[in-house]
Amino acid sequence: MEKALFGAGCFWGVEDFFRQVPGVSDAVSGYAGGTTDNPTYKQICGGDTYHAEVVEVTFDPARVSYASLVQLFFRMHNPTQKDRQGPDFGTQYRSVIFTHGDTQARIVAEERDKLAASGKWSKPIATQIEPAPTFWKAEESHQRYFQKHGGACHVSFAELQEEDAH
Question: Between helices 11-19 and 66-76, what is the axis angle to 10°?
């Protein structure tokens, strides 16, 4: 099993999305990239810690490649928006991929460059690519949020599969 760390806006939708991907065994909401140890949701929403809302994805590389997960990441949100996704804004909602090692960093850079060259977006890709810092698991109330409460805020994995079928 390997780990991936993605920030693409509100972590509730990102977690829910990646839980649907075959080969992903777990997706956990949390915080990374900030200046405070063991931050709370209240602290990161205040904007003082610079943590991003992220999801730690545990996956089986024999079933789903890291490159495939990165491609899905770039498709599930607008990677040209700086410090926001949809109605949510602030540095905690930035588009970011925290990489575990040189291989992941290379794959992310290649996928970002392919996307930029594709012409899909008229604006430049704003996704930050950084080495993975400490991952801090979010409070239990944020785990599996949509399973507990219903709702949705990102494109679903099923929608992308349907799009690909056409």
Answer: 130
- How far is CA 81 from each of CA 57, 116, 156, rounded to the nearest angstrom? 22, 14, 19
Distant-in-sequence, close-in-space partners of 70: CB < 8 Å, separation ≥ 6: 4, 97, 107, 108, 111
- The two three-digit tokens of residue 6, written as one number: 């993605």
Half-sphere exposure of 124 toward its Cβ, with a 13 Å CA cutoff? 3
What HEC string does 5-30 produce? EEEECCHHHHHHHHHCCCCEEEEEEE
Burial class (CB in 10 A: 0-12, 13-18, 19+), 62: exposed
Model confidence over 27-73: pLDDT tens digits? 999 999 999 999 999 999 988 899 999 999 999 999 999 999 999 99
d(CA 143, CA 29) in angstroms, rounded, equals 6
CA angle, 54 then 129 then 161, to 5°: 60
Distance CA 99, CA 2 (A): 11
Residues recognised as catalytic: 10
Distance, in Å, from the CA atom of 114 to the CA atom of 51, rounded to the nearest integer, reads 27
Q: Which domains does the chain have, with CATH numbers?
A: 2-165 (3.30.1060.10)
